[in-house]
Amino acid sequence: MIEEKFIEDLKKNDPDAFKKLYEEYAPKIYGVLKNYVNHDEIEDALQEVFIRIIKGINGFKGLSKLSTWIYRIAVNVGKNYSRKYQRSKETSVDFEDETDQNPNIQAISNTNVKNEVLEELDYQMILNIMEKLDKEERLLIKLRDIDGMSYNEIAEIMEIPLGTVKSKLHYARKKLRQFIEEANLV
């Protein structure tokens, strides 16, 4: 009932509903797009997803959950960007680190610096290890293990059979576990 009211408000072009939509879904969409889009263009892709949502909301029939429909749009936009990269065969490498971009980074207090640094290193190592997975494997792990989506929702978003989702997710997790073990993080 709450989702139906929210969709109705979106269809009425309620600014508060669009604000809520952006606040709730922008981080999730961003996470999906990271699997497909170069960092330099991710904001453009995010904007494109929201434009498609706004333009398409009146045609949304409610045959799936709103979130499933939105994720499907995000995946399609991401795939379009990915195809664009493959066609252009351009690669950009960013050799800057965060300290190059912001020389005014201030020192953190010494209280738990060691623990914070170790946790950050582990987190960054896991992110780096995730990059070893292919796009589809990263997306499956993100949708299921990070966003908590059901297998059925993932199957609908990715337009693949339910059994394929389960199988591919099993192998993606196995591969990720192997990479983590090889990096001695476990």
UniProtKB/TrEMBL annotation:
Pfam families according to UniProt: Sigma70_r2 (PF04542), Sigma70_r4_2 (PF08281)
InterPro entries to which the protein is assigned, alphabetical: RNA_pol_sigma-70-like, RNA_pol_sigma-70_dom, RNA_pol_sigma70_r2, RNA_pol_sigma70_r4_t2, RNA_pol_sigma_r2, RNA_pol_sigma_r3/r4-like, WH-like_DNA-bd_sf
UniProt record, GO biological process: DNA-templated transcription initiation
Keywords: Sigma factor, Transcription, Transcription regulation
Entry's Gene Ontology molecular function annotations: DNA binding; sigma factor activity
Top-level division of the source organism's lineage: Bacteria
UniProt domain RNA polymerase sigma factor 70 region 4 type: residue ranges: 124-176
Segments forming domain RNA polymerase sigma-70 region: 21-87
Family: Belongs to the sigma-70 factor family. ECF subfamily.
Protein name, entry field: RNA polymerase, sigma-24 subunit, ECF subfamily
